[in-house]
Design goal:
The protein has 244 residues and is of the alpha/beta class. Helix content is 30%, strand content 23%.
């Protein structure tokens, strides 16, 4: 039986593949799947947290669950509510905080939160996660549509099932428009170490700046070349100070 006959009998139909979603920064972080965000060095936890708070914007409204291992809560503390207000313009999403004593407890809490469907995003500060654990979380996230972000120490290495792995470090802040001696908008360097949806993007370096006035995260061009020159307002302030 030829193809024309099969089509006439309704036994052969053309099937069109669904359109492929555009892949770009931040490569699904906070909107779908499991992602790892690690410090570049010990002490970069603030930069890593700032990156996650500004780059991970869940597609669905709802509460966030923030899980922290006891060892990190005692050493680094918890994310203050003021930080959430700063990156959301004063209207942070409801946040549920949970401290887990051990790594297995933290991973269990992450999976249970995803399966429950009661939250729109799960963020977990943990010490490690192997391939088996990340595979379970990836499957759970895919089934229930709840994204997961794992905040990891600088020792994070090895193969996992995470969709991406980011490595975050702080950069000199932008010049302050009103006071040359005060810090300006925060800046971070985000290295995309691994990316399953866009393998060719692995190794890309993003120098980012968070603008708390427009609540936007942008790429800073030429940041790696050196510190930015003082803006005109800053130069005028310096001149007035010397004149007085």
């Amino acid at each position: 039986m030829d193809i024309a006959t099969l089509k006439s009998k309704g036994l052969l139909r053309a099937v069109s593949a669904p359109p492929v979603a555009a892949v770009g920064f931040p490569f699904g972080l906070g909107t779908r799947g499991l992602h790892e965000v690690a410090e570049a060095a010990y002490g970069d936890r603030a930069a890593m947290t700032g990156f996650v708070l500004t780059a991970a914007r869940p597609a669905q409204a709802g509460a966030w669950l923030w899980i922290t291992q006891t060892k990190f809560a005692g050493d680094l503390g918890l994310v203050p509510e003021a930080a959430l207000r700063q990156v959301t313009g004063g209207a942070p999403p409801p946040r549920l905080s949970l401290t887990a004593r051990t790594l297995p407890d933290a991973l269990w809490a992450v999976e249970e939160a995803v399966v429950s469907g009661a939250v729109s995003l799960v963020v977990a500060e943990i010490e490690a996660a192997d391939f088996t654990a990340t595979r379970r979380l990836t499957l759970a996230s895919g089934r229930h549509g709840v994204p997961v972000v794992l905040l990891m120490p600088p020792t994070c290495e090895g193969a996992t099932a995470a969709a991406t792995r980011w490595r975050i470090s702080p950069r000199p802040s932008a010049p302050n428009r009103y006071d040359p001696h005060a810090p300006g908008h925060p800046r971070w360097r985000a290295v995309l170490e691994r990316c399953r949806t866009a393998p060719n993007a692995a190794g890309t370096v993003f120098d980012l700046e968070w603008n708390d006035e427009t609540l936007s995260l942008g790429v800073v061009s030429g940041l790696a070349a050196g510190p930015a020159a003082p803006c005109p307002v800053a130069r005028e302030a310096i001149a007035r100070r010397k004149a007085s």
